[in-house]
Design a protein that fits this description.
The chain is an alpha/beta fold and 248 residues long. The protein is 36% helix and 17% strand. The mean pLDDT is 94. It binds ligand 21W.
Length: 248
């Protein structure tokens, strides 16, 4: 996969893109990332990238010209235009499904703003407008890093074990069950007996039940879109009975 990032703050990306799993993917040649400062493409003699809003109003807008020219340059180099993603608080919300969609692409370009907004004409070059969530950031850079991290770990051969990305909570649709490591008794806090029993069938059932319990307690919204197996339906009924839950 090739990833281009257009940003006025390229240094922000050095840590996240060179360390850890994303850095390993670059070393392995699975991923090629380039950060372009679109200030380098300005034709303005003072290298301005922003200007006042027509019609008035507070704040500066990123101008179309530097971003158009930077996009022309990265798209010429990459052969395939791919997806062009505008980081924008008004975009659709990023989630695991979007990460899976992006992981199928050959080429991604992220445009990161850092001002009050974009000249509307920039959107004519954009295929997707994506937000990280309902909170205000100072710019798109952290959003791009989050999206790149979530996407790159889904690429084949990035994680050592190719089943690990598939088992993640949000991929399975349930939260994860509680996990324990040694010792079996830590300051009186004990590991549940079932996990020490060696009975793999009982353990699997316990884990499914606890994953359901945790999801019901913390993220009931996830259960609404989840297709329960007959065993899961049975376990969920047990949980609700234990809770003395009258409904269902
Ligand atoms: C913050 C841009 C506030 C614009 C119209 C009139 C990218 C982000 C960002 C930023 C405003 C994302 C306005 C979640 C985010 C981002 C910087 C408000 C004022 N619009 N995901 N006046 N949250 N944020 N614009 O902030 O660039 S993805």
């Amino acid at each position: 996969m090739r990833i281009d990032i257009l940003s006025l703050f390229p240094e922000m990306f050095t840590g996240p893109l060179t360390e850890s799993i994303v850095g390993k993917a670059v070393e392995k040649g699975i991923l090629d990332i380039e950060v372009t400062n679109f200030r380098d493409y300005t034709t303005d003699r003072q290298n301005h990238v922003d200007d006042y809003s027509y019609g008035g109003g507070a704040g500066m807008l990123l101008q179309a010209q530097p971003i158009f020219d930077a996009l022309d340059a990265v798209q010429q180099k990459a052969l395939t235009p791919g997806k062009v993603i505008l980081l924008d608080p008004a975009g659709r919300r990023f989630d695991q499904h979007v990460a899976e969609e992006l992981a199928h692409e050959q080429h991604l370009t992220f445009i990161c703003g850092h001002y009050e907004g974009y000249d509307e004409r920039i959107r004519t070059r954009v295929t997707d407008e994506i937000s990280l969530g309902d909170y205000v950031l100072t710019g798109g850079e952290l959003g791009a890093m989050v999206m790149i991290d979530a996407t790159v770990r889904l690429l084949p051969d990035v994680l050592g074990n190719d089943s690990s990305a598939m088992d993640d909570s949000f991929s399975t649709g349930l939260l994860e069950y509680p996990q324990y490591t040694r010792p079996a008794d830590f300051r009186g806090l004990k590991v549940p007996d079932v996990l020490l029993s060696g009975d793999h069938q009982r353990i699997a059932r316990w884990r499914t039940k606890e994953a359901l319990r945790r999801t019901l307690e913390r993220r009931p919204d996830l259960l609404e879109n989840y297709a329960l197996s007959s065993e899961e339906r049975h376990l969920l009924r047990e949980i609700k009975e234990e809770m003395n839950c009258q409904d269902e």
